[in-house]
Amino acid sequence: EIVMTQSPATLSVSPGERATLSCRASQSVSSNLAWYQQKPGQAPRLLIYGASTRATGIPARFSGSGSGTEFTLTISSLQSEDFAVYYCQQYNNWPPTKTFGQGTKLEIK
Amino acid sequence: EVQLVESGGGLVKPGGSLRLSCAASGFTFSSYSMNWVRQAPGKGLEWVSSISSSSSYIYYADSVKGRFTISRDNAKNSLYLQMNSLRAEDTAVYYCARDARAAAASWFDPWGQGTLVTVSS
Predict the structure, then answer these.
(1) Interval A56-69: pLDDT, tens
(2) Closest residue of chain B to A105, computed from CA coordinates
(3) What is the enclosing helix (H) or strand (E) of B94?
(4) At the N or C end, where does chain B have fewer CB atoms within 10 A?
């Protein structure tokens, strides 16, 4: 099974500043990596797929990068609505287990 | 509008069974692989199971293998999760999620709103 590890577990950032979240895979997943945002009481919302492609309607301040085993989600200028929990997910062909990272909670500093 | 609506959650005793359903609308259900993902209270997301469009390929997380069974009825646009031998650690919100693209390894989009399963005596 591919294990996804996110860091840090909690990130405290002030509004208007940049946030950088990391995700590492235990083996290469190529660019088969997605990022989701989840707010309390809501289902996850797709932000990024293919490691760097923004989903429909996602603001340009969200960007993803990386390939292989190291990935990054960057939020360039934090807005109040961006404070949430963020998860990465690998969806490589094999093994066919689409595992998630444990999440990074982005909180207001 | 693409929509997924889960149902069937509730309170069940340890060792009991429960069947979750997910009703799909707004897209050609029979063309997409479907998935169940769960989230224990205060915890992260855990992929549970996936089923291909024609039910030919089925996969489970080790934590539920042998106890849970995923299935689908393409004529009824519905996805199911039969959960047997339930344990306290199965307590979670269960989400139904569609593969975002047909016929290829894919991320999940959209997601349903979730249904809560509580396993307790």
Answers:
(1) 999 999 999 999 99
(2) B44
(3) strand B92-99
(4) N
